[in-house]
User: What shape does this take?
Amino acid sequence: MHREGPAHCGVVGRAAATQPGFRYSEALRRSGITWTPAELDAWLSDPESRVPGQAMDVQVSSPVARRRLIAYLATLEPCTPVAARRP
Assistant: This one.
């Protein structure tokens, strides 16, 4: 399920660092962030500025690209727990 980062299904509206099965940085776990569109925009613009000590090494500098990415993320349903998946 997780590869370079946590699964993004259902991320909009979810508390940061709560997707089961992914090892988040201590900084992000303590951040108290909820992933609203505005928070995602700030995060994607400059993660280290938003949460010093976090581990994400990607930034999206274009405001248009961030808006499009956040709009896409908002379409994703919450993740299905691994135990509930069918083969």
